[in-house]
Recover the amino acids of this structure.
């Protein structure tokens, strides 16, 4: 899944920093997991992973790909292949209610809405699959692991048919070619690292007390909040019939604004993270055009670093800009690394 500030192209560098500077590390805590790309890459290197994100849809993705070590078997359903069933069954064969089909009624032009996020047929199938998953879970036909696996599979499939440039903050005013494709659920890759991996859906401050070898933090870089850019995925994940407003049908996110997205609170946010992390090592992903300067963040890290342990790694990286990556000269992805000094 495409994610603002996502580190899918930087996972090798992140792993190399850990391997070379924290060779005794066994447990990595990814406190702002986002799409889960870093957590999954670290899991594949056989570290134990503790993953967290305050967005529920992000938690759902990690709950399936990080927490699970085996693909669920769905023994409670008399279906030879559950993904094939959800992909091919006519919507009238799925257990859903069109009147409560929130995506169809609010994000496609199929039932009076003017919003063009999805073609009506795909919007209705999103609702039908989401409601069917919920029905199975409430009836006890699928267990919790199976529930999150199916829900994550649905969420991961939605961007492939969405009428957007990469995020859900706005929809296109014409139908992109991808929107004419039929929604297709694709089985998720599940990797077994033989570790007890844990996922949380909490504010980062609640995770910091958890003891870990390496705390990896990839907070927002600028004033762009994450939830407005993924609000439909959050609504599909929660399926809570939220009150929505505006041209794009935005759900309320006033209680989920990040202190890392405000110029007047970002310094205190980093100080809080560095002070309260119950970790032997701390890694922070940032870039040189963030709300806090390289010099400021370096000074903050050095305040909590054991003597001589602070290191700054920089890599050329792509700026997120709609469909087109912008390799503007001067933008650098950064990894701040330190061994935390003992009090």
């Amino acid at each position: 899944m495409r994610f603002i500030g996502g580190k899918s192209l930087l996972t090798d560098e992140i792993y190399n920093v850990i391997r070379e500077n924290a060779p005794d590390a066994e447990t990595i805590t990814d406190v702002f997991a986002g799409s889960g790309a870093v957590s999954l890459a670290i899991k594949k290197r056989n570290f134990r992973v503790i993953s967290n994100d305050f967005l529920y849809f992000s938690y759902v993705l990690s709950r399936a790909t990080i927490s699970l070590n085996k693909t669920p078997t769905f023994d409670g359903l008399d279906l030879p292949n559950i993904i094939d069933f959800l992909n091919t069954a006519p919507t009238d064969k799925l257990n859903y209610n069109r009147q409560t089909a929130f995506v169809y009624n609010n994000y496609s032009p199929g039932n009076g809405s003017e919003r063009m996020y999805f073609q009506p047929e795909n919007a209705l199938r999103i609702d039908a699959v989401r409601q069917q998953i919920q029905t199975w879970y409430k009836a006890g036909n699928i267990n919790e692991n199976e529930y999150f696996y199916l829900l994550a599979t649905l969420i991961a499939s939605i961007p492939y048919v969405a009428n957007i440039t990469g995020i859900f903050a706005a929809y296109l005013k014409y139908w992109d070619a991808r929107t004419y494709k039929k929604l297709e659920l694709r089985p998720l890759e599940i990797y077994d690292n033989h570790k007890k991996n844990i996922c949380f859906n909490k504010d980062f401050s609640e995770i910091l007390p958890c003891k870990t070898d390496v705390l990896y933090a990839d907070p927002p870089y600028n004033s762009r909040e994450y939830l407005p850019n993924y609000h439909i995925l959050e609504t599909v994940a929660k399926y809570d019939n939220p009150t929505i407003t505006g041209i794009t049908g935005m759900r309320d996110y006033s209680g989920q604004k990040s202190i890392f997205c405000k110029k007047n609170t970002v310094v205190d946010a980093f100080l809080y993270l560095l002070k309260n992390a119950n970790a032997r090592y701390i890694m922070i992903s940032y870039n040189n055009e963030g709300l806090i300067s390289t010099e400021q963040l370096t000074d903050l890290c050095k305040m909590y670093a054991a003597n001589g342990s602070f290191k700054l790694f920089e890599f050329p990286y792509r700026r997120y800009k709609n469909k087109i990556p912008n390799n503007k000269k001067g933008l650098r992805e950064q990894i701040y690394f330190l061994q935390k000094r003992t009090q």
About this structure: The first strand starts at residue 27 and ends at 30. The two ends are 40 Å apart (CA to CA). The CA atoms of residues 63 and 313 lie 30 Å apart.
